[in-house]
Amino acid sequence: MKIALIQMKVQKENDVNLETACRQVTAAAKAGAELVLLPEMFCCPYETANFPIYAQPQGGANWSALSACARENQVYLVAGSMPEREGNAVYNTCYAFDRRGKQLAKYRKMHLFDIDIKGGQRFFESETLTAGDELAVFDTEFGRMGLMICFDIRFPELARLLALRGAKAILVPAAFNMTTGPAHWELHFRSRAVDNQVFLMGCSPARDRNASYHAYGHSLVVSPWGKILAKLEEQEGILYCDVDLQETEAVREQLPLLKARRTDVYSIGLV
Questions:
Q1: Per-residue confidence at 269, pLDDT binned at 50, 70, 90?
Q2: Is 135 within 8 Å of 146 (Cβ atoms)?
Q3: What residues form DSSP beta bridges with 4?
């Protein structure tokens, strides 16, 4: 399976971002990509005050355009994340579409990014967002995949639950910043990949020094052995990588971590 991660700059205009994303998906499809991943909040400047302003319901204009983009390009499209409105609540939501544009899965970010780092950044998603509470996996002809969003990757229980539900790859739209990115970006992706013997794919926005939020960039693909298979720097670009999800089974046979778990002593309950 050839995958493509779209590392794009995020502008102030929703429609401009949407047009850029769909154009890049088309370019990736023409290059042979079968699954395309977009970044976290690809349609919206990453500021808490913006989320309610840019929020749209499931089935809204952005959802419809992305569904059509997947169908027209005949790719699986994991459409990054965007603010989703349902009633009075706003969620950080990732939609996954199949080659016909049908929604396969929806995941609402479960762990909200609330931090206050001394000498670093203060950012509280909970000021305007509501946390999700459901796991998301979906099936393709290549294998089952799971979804997380950014801050979720810091919580090993979530990645383990996705692996226990059969995910061979975990797709992560994300936007680490210039404090957390250099310190923990690669570390977390490699750790979750090795812990669960799955592929980890992280797609970030490109860094824009003129924006209020400076994304780390460095979109990457990590193998079940913890090897970085492909990586970008901070600039705009499309990251391509060929992966075989059957590699997860080979790695698990060589190093049977999941089989060796002591579930008689500890357990993680499925939610």
A1: low
A2: yes
A3: 36, 240
Q: Say if residue 249's pLDDT is above 60.
A: yes
**Cα distance between residue 127 and residue 114, in whole Å:** 9
**What average pLDDT does range 115-141 have in this prediction?**
89
pLDDT at 14 over 70: yes
Ramachandran quadrant class, 55 (left: phi over 0; alpha: psi -120 to 50; beta: rest):
beta
Beta-carbon contacts of 241 under 8 Å, excluding residues fewer than 6 positions away, are 2, 3, 5, 221, 229, 230
pLDDT at 270 over 70: no
Give me the phi and psi of 17, to 5 degrees please: -65, -40
Burial class (CB in 10 A: 0-12, 13-18, 19+), 91: buried
C-alpha 130 chain-centroid distance: 18
**pLDDT recorded at residue 271:** 46
Give the pTM. 0.95
Average pLDDT of the residues in 226-254: 97
The total number of residues shown for the chain amounts to: 271
Task: Please name which of 105, 97, 80 lies closest in space to residue 17, comparing C-alpha atoms.
Answer: 80
Query: Is residue 149 pLDDT above 80, yes or no?
Result: yes
State the average pLDDT over residues 178-188.
Answer: 95
What positions carry a catalytic annotation? 40, 109, 150
Tell me the one-letter amino acid at 68. A
